[in-house]
Amino acid sequence: GARTARDLWTGSFILSHLARQAGTSFAQAGATLLYPATLPASSASDRFVASFPNKFSVRLEADRVTTVAEAAQTVVRQEWRRIAHSVRQYLKKHSGSNWDEGWQAQIDNLLECYWISLPMDEAVLGEANLRLESRKRLRDFAAYTGDRREKDTIDGLFEQMGPRDGGRTGSKQFWEGLRESLLNQRSLAHLGENERLSAVNLTKRYAPEVVFRSDLGDLTAVVNSTSDVATAWWRQDITQRAKSNEPLKKAVDDYLKKLDEMLKLLPEAEGRGNGKQLEQIEGRYLYAEVLRELEASPNLKEAARTAVGRVREALKVLLKLSAETKSGPPPRYYALLFLDGDKMGRYISRQPVEKLKEVSGKLLQYAQDIRKEIAPKFGGTVIYTGGDDALLMLPVAKALDCAIELQNVFPLAPDTTVSMGLTLAHYKYPLQRALAEGRQTEKRAKGELDRDALAISVIKRSGEQVQTGSKWREIGAGELEVFPLIDELQGYFSQEWLSPKLPYRLRQETALLYSDGGGSGMKAQLVSEFRRLYGRQSNPPKDDAPAEESLKLLGQKLERLAGVMNFERFNDLMLVAAFLARGGEEE
Questions:
Q1: Cα(294)–Cα(537) distance, rounded to whole angstroms?
Q2: How far is CA 26 from CA 7, 21, 38, 39, 419, in A?
Q3: CA 176/CA 326 separation, integer angstroms
Q4: Res 7 pLDDT > 80
Q5: Residue 70 vs residues 29, 515, 520: alpha-carbon distances, Å
Q6: What percent of the chain has pLDDT over 90?
Q7: How far apart (Å, rounded) are the C-alpha atoms in residues 168 and 165?
Q8: pTM listed for this prediction
Q9: Are the beta carbons of 371 and 382 closer than 8 angstroms?
Q10: How many C-beta neighbours within 10 Å does residue 305 have?
Q11: What is the pLDDT at residue 548?
């Protein structure tokens, strides 16, 4: 389970690290890696990203399979135990005794390792994938006996650590004491006020700084919070605008100065971050409601409370000037982008063994491009990328741009395709639920939209949800590329060349028509209504013929798209474009 973005990243990082240990064990035993064909190089620029897949294929002599596979499995389990043991010893320094009963049992009952072997021939990988899935369905359920302690507050899989006796009062005292002790040690990872974690989730929470800190270096760069991701593009935009806008620059400098003063007075859990540059601060400090809540905290010392108030006033000035530059307020929504190659098992199984290295090389390069070029270009954070699958967190303003580029450069096209699920959620929306929705959105792209598609879901703070999507290209509209049109529409909404109210007016005017089903005549009425409203809602700059022509051409293409798509889905795509243009702000 993952409650925070850091937990999400850490889980992926540790799993990739363990899979790499297994792959290394096979390679050192003389096995030939087939897919992926090589172990990705571990460089300083790649150290923050989970990049080795947790399923891979090797070739080795039949009489050595069991010995080598079991040795790799042992390596994985020993490494996982080593990581967990290091965290356990670290926590013992801050927590006294009699709190970690059952630790080892939880650690030992987490991992499931499976392998199968087949004689080598041209179709072996396809058959191997099928047999591995069958083997996984026959899971080995080791006996696990819990105790009377309550379940972990993140995922409920195991019992929370803490004294076995003493009831809720004893548990509360233990966790409050541990939290305070860790705060005093300036730990970057921290426990939430109501968090009570199992051995597994404590290991995930603290492994980066306890076990991997020497490898990872600056842990503040490891992963961004949801508010950091949501505000990433806004912070970059304001930083650039301030270079040529003196009042805005002064407002930014004043805000950063007061923020730096505030951070020095806050408890360590609230004071993480760097207030020197706008692009380095924690995104949540750009939300007035967060500062108000912090200012009202009963545990805050008076000097810190005063400093928070000064930051809040400086932020008010900054946001006023931001509105004048049409940058708008800091966005409160972010995007989760799930990517997965279509029918990859079938595609790989059809490749001659000698071509697997070429295919693997293309996918490894694609994964590297995502990490080093594509994600940074759009202000994104990579959670994992294995070549034919990936998970990114992105600011909403650039989420669609990123998806389009990832599809355009997918290295195995046209032999196979890629599908994606894009989910937009409020930064306060539970991450576990956003991830679950994101996975379902990706499944809709592969199922309901029949692959080679992008499915989109919007989880609004108001409770309303929008679910839509499309094939990347709409064949019925002459191979029209759908999402570049929606991206262009988003841009015109942002510039107010088109009123963002257009899709809402269209829904109001046509809801009864498309709910009736109708035939081609009904579709013609719907398209006609779109044409009428598009013309009325257009507002290009005066005396700007190129702008008028651009709007006109976009309208014609959208009209073609409306004529062949399910109209409700088309309307919802326009709603998504308006939502993205507003940075996720409600209408």
A1: 42
A2: 29, 9, 11, 11, 32
A3: 45
A4: yes
A5: 12, 59, 63
A6: 63
A7: 9
A8: 0.91
A9: yes
A10: 15
A11: 94
